Amino acid sequence: MAKVTSPLMSMSASGQFGHSMVFTKNNVVRKYVVPANPQTVAQVAVRNKLKEIQKSLVLLGPVLRAELKSQFGARWNSMIVGELTADDGARLTAYVGEFTAFEVGEKADWATADGSAPTILADGAPLYACASAIYDMAVRLGATVTLTLPAAANGIAVGAEWVAAA
């Protein structure tokens, strides 16, 4: 049921009016649309990759988190996710491809450093992808972050910088 203050369409309203219109919180009226969640195989795959990225970003320590917030603003998290998922996840695919080419011991170091326990991507791949995206964005935008350039042989070092406390 819609909640209206003052005469309809003169002040504000929120909620649904029948099955014809919806009043949003920012005083916009739109057509009512039945929500859909088809859960196709492709949709579920994208959601799972987003979950893996977020699980790695949650582990950020206060030092790197503060740097990202100061360099990229309050929406730093969205910038990183957008970087990895743009062009149908081309960057994420490229970073995971780089990770796949690592030696077994190098992958093990990245897996040890990655505390996110991924289920879709290989252990260590989300940390490598997120760290690479952050580093590449910082270089491209001229920002300063203390994160070392992620490479095959420095998973432990980057992992330590990732979770470092002040």
Descriptive overview:
With 166 residues, the chain is an alpha+beta fold. It folds into two domains: 1-35, no CATH class; 41-163, no CATH class. Helix content is 54%, strand content 9%. The chain is built from six helices and four strands. It has a four-stranded antiparallel β-sheet with strand order 1-2-3-4, with no helix packed on it. Strand 1 and strand 2 form a beta hairpin. Helix 3 (76-100) packs across helix 5. It is elongated, with a radius of gyration of 21 Å. The mean pLDDT is 88.
Key terms for this structure?
four-stranded antiparallel sheet, 6 helices, elongated, alpha+beta, single chain, 166 residues
Please outline the helices and strands:
Blueprint: E1 3-5, E2 12-17, E3 21-23, E4 29-31, H1 41-58, H2 62-72, H3 76-100, H4 104-113, H5 125-141, H6 155-163
Helix pairs in contact: 1-5, 3-5, 4-6
